[in-house]
Description:
Helix content: 40-55%
Mean pLDDT: 76
Structural class: alpha+beta
Radius of gyration: 30 Å
Low-confidence stretches: 1-22, 149-176, 492-504
Oligomer: single chain
Largest sheet: 5 strands, antiparallel
Number of domains: 3
Distance between the termini: 37 Å
Shape: flat
Number of strands: 20
Amino acid sequence: MKRTLFTLLLLVPVLSVYAQMEQHVTWKFYLNKISDTQVEVVCEATLDDGWHIYSHDLPENTAFPTIITLNESVKYKPLGDITEEPAPEVHYDDSFKAELKWIAGKAKFKQLVEVDGPVTIEGIIEYMICNDENCMPPTEESFSLKVGGGAAAATTTKAADNTAKIEAATGHENETDNKSYWGIFWLAFIGGFAALLTPCVFPMIPMTVSFFTKQSGSRAAGVRNAMLYGLSIIFIYVVLGTSVAAIFGADALNALSTNPWFNFFFFLLLVVFAISFFGAFELVLPSSWVNFADRKADKGGLIGIFFMAFTLALVSFSCTGPIVGSLMVQAATGGFMGPIIGMLGFSLALALPFTLFAAFPGYLNTLPKSGGWLNSVKVVLGFLELAFAFKFLSMADMVLDLHLLEREVYFAIWIAIFGALAFYLFGKIRLPHDSPMDHIPVSRFILGLTVLSFTIYMIPGLWGAPVKLISGFPPPKDYAESPLGVGREIPASSFVSKGGEHAGGMPEGMHPGPQNIPAFHDYDLALAYSKKVNKPLLLDFTGKACANCRKVEDNVWSDKSVKDILTHDFILVSLYVDLRTKLPEDEIYYSETLGKKVKYIGQKWQEFQQKRYNQGAQPYYVITDTDGNKINQPKAYEPNIDKYKNWLLDGLEEFKKNK
Length: 659
């Protein structure tokens, strides 16, 4: 989902605690006389070590820029843009996933002003400061500077920032992003090893290593050349990942995860890849490309080694292309760095065997011989590609709210796919390029039993079982033909708080939500009901295509103690920011926050989240009182049950204190 304004902001206490905050920036305001009719307003910031202030020139939808705003007056007017001193440095900001300009140490922001005689120039400077772990909310400082008789009266003020002892937003974002990047890396690394076990790549290992050891003058030279070969493979694939990231950009890549049309395209793409692996056809690159690379490889030396690696990439495309394509689709949700990290993991796994076997050629004899098992690997990968394809179709269906691929249908498809895979492994199904088998190898038989067990495990999901092993993949329970499970009705007690305030069934606007927890889908209705029953409100900013949202709902909210707290002690409102249900014509409006018309319900809640909490990521949880005021620190993705439960209890305790 597209990152929006101020990902880190407002993860801090309310303004009433500012008097207790530690100071990290000191402001000094003064004037420089330029001429009798022009002066320069100078706002000089001195920052503590490790802190920086952002430039006035920043990309949209990132950090808060430094802005000087003068009060309107007929006696003076600003001229031109703000200038900065020293020149800002450009850094890649991990929090905002963009290159941003900032200044550390001492910074001067200057605004040229035209004046008409003696006058007092009044205005404010709005700014945001950060260090490597924390970002403070946008803050403003006012100034009043007198112009008259060629002298300027200087004013000095100190600005306090918010360093209350809370979990810093930046730290949390970085931790989450790091986990995401590691996940992409290891997924790609496994994909690289899978690519090794295909008919296009595996036979190349002994051939290539033998070439290096025979053509090199010594073993050391052979090892060196093989290492260069491996590094060339890594370089080629990382350049591919970098090119994808540069062409599409971080914003576009993040948007892929929730855009229904992209998800539908990915579904079709993975289906084509799967059919190719099944043996219906081969994906090949133009032969002229392969011939060109092969001719260059004959030249020898470093250039020859590089083009040998390039030839491998081209020749093996029919096997590696679908794997690389699938990984790039998955890595795209990791922003700009996702495809780069994904291709690093893939190419590292692909290159390692060539280098290691060149260093220890004796171990080549331990490799299994090429044969029909290599095609079986391709077919198994084809089944996995087909299964994952329906994840993307499911996301498109949920975002468009079509209800064509509900939870039961999704499970039926996966049960059929993995059931067919089990039959294939047992030798009951043969595909075009499979070799005949007199018997099933023990390893294949064990793998078949594992797949069959997994298939049987999924069957209860048709009747509403949680099936936690694959949480995040199927649609949530409330996106089903039978949201409560087959033959079940939600008991009246589920809608009765411990104090009995809302006995008698669901109030207007409330529905069975995730884990059958009573939930509203409209903020105003939920807030009014919260006030009526005097219970705190839990805002659940979520998305139909948000995998981490499903993980929290399936693995955390399903815990009996957490579910009991959510059901009885809070009023839950789930606001889906990617819902494509159209608003009535008379409710469509232009949003300054989003910079476009709000036409869909999802956009309405997206704007609400950004405008109210300056946060654009999901999941995002906020506990408020009955007037909509935030009670404690909001929480993003939290898979730990105890931490999430303690956060809920902390909010509940704060609510009771302030009653």
